Amino acid sequence: MRRNRSGLVSDIALLSFLVLLYICIVFISGTPDDYIQNIIILNVAFILAVVTYFTTVTAGLVLNLVFIFAYGFYTMYKTISLGETIGLNTYFWLIMTPLLTVVLWIFTLSNRELQAENQRLEKKTANMAIVDENTDLRNSISFQKDATLFTGISTRYQIPLTLLVVKVKYWNEIRRIIPEDKLAEAIHDVSQLSQASIRTNDALYLLDKDDATWGLLLFTDSDGAKIVIERIKLKLQELNDTEFVKKYKVSLGLKIGAVQYQSGTIENPLDFIVQAKKQLEYDV
User: Fold this and answer.
1) What is the residue-wise DSSP string for 193-206?
2) Which of 49, 57, 203, 266 is the most exposed, having the fewest neighbouring CB atoms within 10 Å of its CB?
3) Under a CB-based contact definition with an 8 Å cutoff, are residues 160 and 219 in contact?
């Protein structure tokens, strides 16, 4: 409802601005004796309106006050020195110039409200999304929801639960080598490598796409996690020997950290990730 109202106000303001410009053109064409002066003032009025569009209404109105003062001083000079009378031309521009500024500011304000609303909706949609659109992997939001469930199952039924955090070594340097259009594909290939190394009842998450970091929730203990780690590293070696180096012109390395869930030391899913990431420091 608010978005529709903002759109309506924006449309009315734009239409009003066009109507005012049309009135200015008609007025100028009806006063050929002051044609040059009116054209100059119209350009000044348009410039003030554009300045308001890119800045604020305060700046626009201050500039309008400067214009009104300067134009009033010029009119007074002509009246006193040349004996001319104050005609319709003067009153027209003293009213029309600030009016153009205000109408364009209303259009700008409504337009910015629409942009802000659109950004809020995009952010809300991104926050609600639980699957990465490029890799079809569950993301960190999904991890937090699932980890709460899995840790509850682990505690209740005494089933060991281990989190593996997998990170690409030197990713910031690698992403400068791999073309931008292939980065998503490279992340997808590494995701497939990790997915192929776990069982169907384990879960894989893309925790940080920008830093190429994955999380694997495994219903196993630390010894079982070591087997999965070795399996991932073996598959990585096979990938480097066959496809990855040829495809992306770079050899890939992984750092893997693992932490088994302990209800007394891990307070929440984010703490689970933090403790697992600390183990990355020992994998050199």
Assistant:
1) HHHTTS-TTSEEEE
2) 57
3) yes
